[in-house]
Design brief:
Layout lengths: L3 E4 H6 L1 H11 L3 E4 L5 E4 L2 H27 L11 H7 L10
Parallel strand pairs: 1-2
Antiparallel strand pairs: 2-3
Protein name: Antitoxin
Organism: Nonomuraea guangzhouensis
Family: Belongs to the phD/YefM antitoxin family.
């Protein structure tokens, strides 16, 4: 799958077509504002699938940490904050992106 990269002005002029391609053809489009600012236009269905996969990955990491503790490979740790817990599990804190 090739992801086409467009500047904002070009994407704006083709927005209807890009949305149709995302929704019906499941073709994402990268939209760039600058070399460091990029976003991807995807269908809502594809976005929901990505979120589901991300949640499953996070749940797998947590399950593995619990299993490692049960095998005696990981100490029980008390955390002062949720952010510290998430950082130790190499997960983004709630509200952050990975």
């Amino acid at each position: 799958m090739t992801i086409e990269a467009l500047g904002i002005a070009e994407a704006r002029s083709q927005l209807g077509t890009l949305v149709s391609r995302a929704v019906h053809g499941h073709q994402p489009t990268t939209i760039r504002r600058s070399s460091s600012e990029r976003a991807v236009l995807v269908s809502e269905q594809d976005y929901q699938e990505l979120l589901r996969a991300h949640r499953e990955l996070e749940a797998g990491r947590v399950a593995e940490a619990i299993a490692a503790h049960e095998r005696g490979e990981r100490e029980m740790i008390t955390y002062d904050s949720k952010a510290a817990l998430y950082a130790d599990l190499d997960l983004p804190a709630p509200g952050e992106r990975s």
